[in-house]
Write a structure and sequence with these properties.
Elements: H1 2-35, E1 38-46, E2 49-52, E3 57-60, E4 63-68, E5 71-76, E6 90-96, E7 99-105, H2 112-133
Helix pairs in contact: 1-2
Length: about 140
């Protein structure tokens, strides 16, 4: 009986953690799009390919360079296991005019995949917690 209570609380806490993380990712994406109203062209200076020999796959964390009012900025963002851009490719960068370092690259996408993976995981954990509670 004590084990079920521990599993129930653990599932609820894990579900709550996933839901809070999902909410933060959603809010951060909305905030980034709200603040980044100006756009410029950037260029991929490094596709950031790394090989994971244990999992036998590649991960891409491209580095993008862009300029705002003569000041050069770089942004590095992971794209997961798929190659979305190549070195030398021109990309669209949206940036915050008040803080040009705050930006996102259209071609690299947003965190929507992480968001839509985290929230369902939270729901599943909470449902497991309910299952343990009434088992």
């Amino acid at each position: 009986m004590k084990d079920l209570i521990i599993m129930e609380r653990g599932a609820f806490l894990l579900g709550l953690l996933f839901m809070v993380l999902g909410g933060y990712l959603w809010w951060h994406g909305k905030e980034l799009k709200r603040l980044c109203t100006e756009q410029t062209r950037g260029v991929v200076v490094d596709e950031g390919r790394s090989r994971d020999f244990k999992r036998k796959n590649e991960t891409y964390i491209p580095k993008v360079s862009y300029s705002v009012l003569g000041v050069e900025y770089t942004k590095q963002k992971g794209t997961g296991n798929t190659r979305k851009v190549s070195t030398g490719q021109s990309v669209t960068v949206f940036y915050d005019p008040a803080n040009p370092q705050r930006s996102y690259v259209v071609e690299l996408g947003t965190r929507s995949v992480a968001l839509w993976a985290v929230i369902p995981a939270g729901v599943v954990c909470i449902l497991l917690g309910l299952l343990f509670r009434f088992a």
